[in-house]
Specification:
mainly alpha
């Protein structure tokens, strides 16, 4: 009977897999996402400059100097971290996110293997796919990511709560669909596929209808830039989850192979 890895062993495996996934996701974000962020920031700065120029022209002579000083102060505060520093910090952020996600992933593997018929590589890959679907895909297609210059700062708390609600929706849809799949495990193949899929789509569809829509994209914002940014954001998250699942599966398979080799050599 094969040995079952302990929680500390799985946590170490998850942290390593998460670090690998975070670095790879950072690379994708740097190559695909940062050019779109730079373009969006340029649009934001151009709009800000135009607004300041308009306010300056309309201000009284006695207050124009104070307005200019205030605007200069504002830019100095916003530029505390340069874009170069932000780009290097991107890898740190994605690596830390990968480490945290890897620890959560390993803990989920440890407990889920007691309740589902999957283990090892199939469990790692299946959990990564389900995690991406619930935590990234479901929220994304309701509330997609926006670049700088898009979104009202006054509604950021409301939008954050809505996004968290979409994450809960995704987790509920995947969890209930998984439960339905366990109920029809002994049925025909078409039923085993259709029942959980229909369950997932119905729950997500109802959630999308009930949750309010959010559209704060300015009319003059380039549509191409908006969707390129969103696609790159989706690609970063897909890279993170795919790399996490594959790295964890590889480490699991390698550990099992090493253990089998040791057992075979000791028997021989």
């Amino acid at each position: 009977m094969p040995l079952t890895p302990s929680l500390p062993t799985l946590l170490l495996r998850g942290l390593l897999a998460g670090l690998i996934a975070g670095v790879l996701a950072g690379g994708v974000a740097f190559l695909l996402g940062e050019p779109h962020v730079d373009a969006a920031i340029a649009i934001e700065e151009a709009n800000s400059a135009a607004t300041e120029a308009h306010d300056h022209d309309g201000a009284a002579a006695g207050h124009s100097h104070e307005a200019t000083e205030s605007a200069g102060h504002s830019h100095g505060d916003a530029a505390e971290v340069s874009r170069t520093g932000q780009k290097f910090g991107l890898f740190l952020a994605t690596s830390l996110a990968g480490l945290a996600l890897g620890a959560i992933f390993a803990t989920a593997v440890f407990y889920l293997r007691r309740f589902i018929p999957l283990a090892g590589v199939p469990l790692a890959l299946g959990l990564a796919g389900a995690g991406w679907l619930a935590i990234e895909a479901v929220p994304f297609f309701k509330y997609p990511a926006n670049p700088p210059a898009v979104g009202d700062p006054d509604t950021i708390n409301d939008r954050t709560l809505l996004w968290l609600g979409a994450v809960v929706l995704g987790l509920a849809a995947v969890g209930i669909a998984g439960y339905v799949a366990s109920l029809v495990r002994s049925r025909l193949v078409t039923v085993r596929i259709a029942a959980p899929l229909a369950t997932f789509l119905v729950i997500v569809g109802l959630g999308y209808v009930l949750m309010p829509a959010v559209n704060e994209v300015p009319e003059d914002f380039p549509a191409t830039l908006l969707w390129e940014f969103r696609i790159s954001s989706l690609a970063v998250q897909a890279t993170l989850w795919a790399a996490l699942g594959l790295a964890f599966a590889f480490l699991t398979e390698r550990s099992a192979s090493t253990r089998e080799s040791r057992v075979a050599s000791s028997v021989g």
